[in-house]
């Protein structure tokens, strides 16, 4: 897998390069500032981009802006965005541009190597990977929406779905049967007014799209 990394912290940047190359991936370019990101992406057209939200020179949202621009100029480019903190508005803006091949993780997650690599590969394959803390923020900050009608177990199921997990993983995490998960998912879709089928990746994309467009 060919990867472009944009991260201003030299130590973390080199750590990511070492981690990815050790896992058998090829880092084709690195960027240390916001203006360097798009040229690197356009030149190398990687299989996935790993971008820090805040980059020089402004340390505001240069990485996020680059991610949004990249997905416009390179349709379908998988992007995994890293952030130091949970910034709901950034996550929602990223998702609003389409939920296929999108990830938003806290930097702490990089230290959990297996989780990070799994998330990266899921995004590169066109899937989704939202940090559990980001999902929690997306769910708990929204008031007076159909989300309020979900039971605690249905909200747990929805959160795990939004993170990109399949039914078997959800069942294992919640210590319930897959049949129970299927029922919970059906109830979630019914209450959110979404298609009832829980099969295939589209169920995750539908939920993420709903969360991204739900008024705050």
Q: List segments where confidence is low: pLDDT < 50 over at least 5 consecutive residues.
A: none
Q: What is the overall number of helices?
A: 10
Strand content: 5-15%
The amount of helix comes to 40-55%
Q: Please summarize the sheet with the most strands.
A: 6 strands, parallel
* N-to-C CA distance: 37 Å
Order of helices and strands: EHEHEHEHEHEHHHHH
- Strand order in the sheet with the most strands: 2-1-3-4-5-6
Provide the structure class: alpha/beta
Radius of gyration: 17 Å
Structure summary, number of beta strands: 6
- Write down the overall geometry: globular
Give the overall pLDDT as a whole number. 85
Could you explain how this protein is built, in words?
- The protein is of the alpha/beta class.
- It is 50% helix and 13% strand.
- It is built from 10 helices and 6 strands.
- Helix 8 (167-174) crosses helix 9 (178-192).
Characteristic terms for this protein:
about 220 residues; alpha/beta; Response regulator transcription factor; phosphoprotein
Task: Summarize, please.
The chain is an alpha/beta fold and 216 residues long. It has helices at residues 10-22, 37-44, 62-73, 88-96, 113-124, 132-140, 152-162, 167-174, 178-192, 202-213, and strands spanning 2-6, 26-31, 48-52, 79-83, 102-106, 128-130.
Give a topology summary:
Elements (H helix, E strand, L loop, with lengths): L1 E5 L3 H13 L3 E6 L5 H8 L3 E5 L9 H12 L5 E5 L4 H9 L5 E5 L6 H12 L3 E3 L1 H9 L11 H11 L4 H8 L3 H15 L9 H12 L3
Parallel strand pairs: 1-2, 1-3, 3-4, 4-5, 5-6
């Amino acid at each position: 897998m060919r990867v472009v990394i944009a991260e201003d912290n030299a130590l973390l940047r080199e750590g990511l390069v070492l981690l990815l190359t050790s896992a058998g991936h090829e880092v084709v370019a690195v960027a240390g500032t916001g203006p360097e990101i798009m040229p690197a992406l356009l030149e190398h057209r990687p299989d996935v981009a790993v971008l820090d939200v805040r980059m020089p020179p402004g340390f505001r949202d240069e990485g996020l802006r680059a991610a949004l621009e990249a997905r416009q100029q390179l349709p379908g480019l998988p992007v995994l965005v890293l952030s130091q903190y949970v910034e709901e508005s950034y996550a929602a803006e990223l998702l609003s541009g389409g939920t296929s091949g999108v990830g938003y993780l806290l930097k702490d997650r990089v230290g959990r190597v297996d989780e990070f690599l799994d998330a990266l590969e899921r995004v590169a394959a066109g899937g989704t990977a939202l940090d559990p803390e980001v999902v929690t923020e997306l769910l708990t900050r929204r008031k007076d929406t159909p989300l309020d009608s979900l039971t605690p177990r249905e909200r747990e199921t929805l959160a795990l779905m939004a993170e990109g997990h399949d039914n078997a993983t959800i069942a294992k995490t919640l210590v319930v049967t897959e049949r129970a998960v299927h029922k919970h998912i059906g109830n979630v879709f019914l209450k959110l007014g979404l298609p009832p089928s829980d099969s295939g990746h589209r169920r995750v994309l539908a939920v993420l799209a709903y969360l991204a467009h739900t008024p705050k």
